[in-house]
Design brief:
heterodimer; A: Immunoglobulin-like; 21% helix; B: alpha+beta; 9-stranded antiparallel beta sheet; two-stranded antiparallel sheet; 30% strand
Chain lengths: 274, 246
């Protein structure tokens, strides 16, 4: 009753008063009015919960701070500076090809990049380019490396295979088939693979005494330290290169021996690139 | 008190408005998009036709004829996908970890257009906090033959672990391009090189194996990359099959 009275005094208008009176019916019951307020407060609380739930995850998505500073209130602050970069060691002098760029990156990551250049397609696609990026998040603990192959100005709409090889040019030696790249209509293409790359090797376990030099020193098996791309099908290669007598090669998996075409792109180096 | 009452009423009205708006938007979106309304029947239609996945049928035939191991499950996936699963069982760790299990799942999107296959290896009840290497191999057990190092898996404190990698799996092969040779593949016919159709896991460090298996006489193996040679331990898990598993 008291609340209603105050309301009437402040509103001072018959229509408004009557209207609100109807909304709050039965006006005369204090207990019922109280219940109404409780429901209203409950509604506000629900709304507040809803709003806090919506805003919660966004506020927690903060980048990892370079150094976590804590305010007096105990809440972590946002980073204000970039991570420090360093250029990690990758192989020794005279062991890694001069085309290999080791990027300055944040510890503990290792990122190397090197180009691919046209091989059999050089005459018809002299501007073809390739860039290989190999990323190791943490060389001590990663499960595999990420190998990214980007190409431009290649023969359009053609499927190429990607191999890790012992040698960058003929006879190529031991090889490991890792994936495919299918070029778009403009001759560009990209593929991303997740597999062991930096310490890839070929081995026949029956001859376990075979070793070779890796960036880390002597290692088991024969190191696969080059990257090349091949025409997935010799038929396509003959058509693209306008040469009907190109022989098939083993550089693709699956049915039909020697159904792949010639090498299209190579790192072209004698020293290792991975 | 008057202020409190105002806030209460405003809050309630706002909440009601929010709910009504949400419901209205939902109803409007559903009625304005008949195509979306038909999504469920369309999915059911496609699902009903999954038995027409020719590659799944081929793989089932290979299992029946013994050209694919009986432990391989070929999932009834929609075309053009191929999904196979097979178990790994303990080898050198069998006595110490008889309950160790492994499950391999290989997914290929489209044989002709996929850049690579996606391989998931899940293990349970393995030696905890140990790094294992994963290899595609010519034979499931000794002498293993030609091999390809594909990834690592480090177990957690409870002996479980998972790793997912993307590379060529279904048609993986080893070769020396100077003399590639050929081999027979159940799915593909005659192929270049030597097919790698088995999978195994090895202790990446001999010392780990000697400690876990309590055996100082174990010898080093080639089954890890990097320096020094023969620093890996024995095979821990194998598919254990004579016929190919992928």
């Amino acid at each position: 009753m008291f609340k209603d009275k105050v309301f009437q005094v402040r509103r001072d208008g018959g229509c408004w008063e009557a209207g609100w009176g109807r909304l709050r019916r039965p006006v005369g019951s204090f207990a019922t009015q109280n219940k109404g307020y409780m429901i209203s407060i409950l509604g506000i609380m629900l709304l507040a919960l809803l709003l806090s739930a919506c805003s919660g995850p966004f506020s927690s998505q903060t980048p990892t701070p370079t150094s976590t500073t804590t305010q007096n209130s105990g809440f972590p602050t946002f980073p204000t500076t970039a991570l420090a970069l360093r250029t990690p060691a990758f192989g020794s002098s005279g062991q890694v090809a001069p085309t290999v760029k080791v990027l300055a990156s944040a510890d503990p990551s290792l990122i190397v990049q090197f180009p691919l250049v046209p091989a059999s397609i050089k005459t018809l696609f002299p501007d073809a380019t390739g860039l290989v990026t190999v990323v190791q998040g943490n060389p001590q603990t990663n499960d595999f490396d990420t190998l990214i192959v980007d190409v431009q100005k290649m023969p359009p709409n053609v499927k190429f295979t990607v191999f890790l090889t012992e040698l960058s040019a003929k006879p190529f030696g031991h090889a490991e088939y890792v994936g495919d790249v299918i070029t778009r209509a403009d001759g560009s293409g990209e593929s991303i693979f997740h597999l062991i790359t930096f310490v890839a090797f070929a081995a026949d376990a029956r001859n376990s005494n075979v070793t070779s030099a890796d960036q880390s020193g002597d290692a088991s098996g024969i190191q696969l330290e080059h990257v090349g791309m091949w025409f997935d099908g010799v038929t396509f290669a003959r058509k693209v290169l306008n040469s009907p007598n190109i022989p098939g090669t083993p550089f693709d998996g699956g049915g039909g021996a020697l159904h792949a075409g010639p090498q299209a792109m190579t790192d072209g180096q004698k020293l290792s690139v991975i | 008190m008057q202020l409190l009452r105002k806030i209460s009423l405003s809050g309630s009205l706002l909440l009601a408005l929010l709910l009504i708006t949400t419901m209205w938007v939902g109803v409007t979106a559903a009625s304005a998009s008949p195509a979306k309304a038909n999504t469920f029947p369309a999915v059911r239609e496609v699902s009903a036709s999954h038995s027409s996945n020719s590659n799944v049928e081929l793989l089932h035939r290979l299992i029946r004829s013994g050209r694919l191991a009986p432990t391989v499950h070929v999932l009834n996936s929609l075309p053009p996908t191929t999904i196979v699963q097979f178990p790994l069982v303990p080898s050198s760790i069998k006595n110490a970890f008889p309950q160790a299990t492994g499950l391999v799942t290989i997914v290929r999107g489209d044989r002709n257009n996929a850049f690579s296959d996606t391989v998931t290896v899940d293990v349970q009840n393995m030696p905890p906090n140990i790094t294992f290497t994963i290899f595609y191999i010519e034979f499931a057990s000794k002498p293993f033959g030609n091999v390809e190092y594909v990834a690592d898996l480090t177990t957690r404190g409870d002996g479980s672990g998972e790793t997912i990698f993307q590379n060529i799996a279904f048609v993986a092969f080893a070769m020396d391009a100077r003399n590639p040779g050929t081999s027979q593949d159940g799915q593909e016919g005659t192929t270049s090189g030597i097919n790698l159709e088995h999978m195994g896991m090895w202790f990446s460090q001999l010392q780990d194996a000697q400690k876990v298996l309590n055996d100082d006489t174990l010898n080093g193996t080639i089954f890890d990359g990097g320096n020094p040679p023969l620093h890996a331990g024995p095979q821990a898990m194998t598919d254990g099959q004579t016929a190919p598993v992928f």
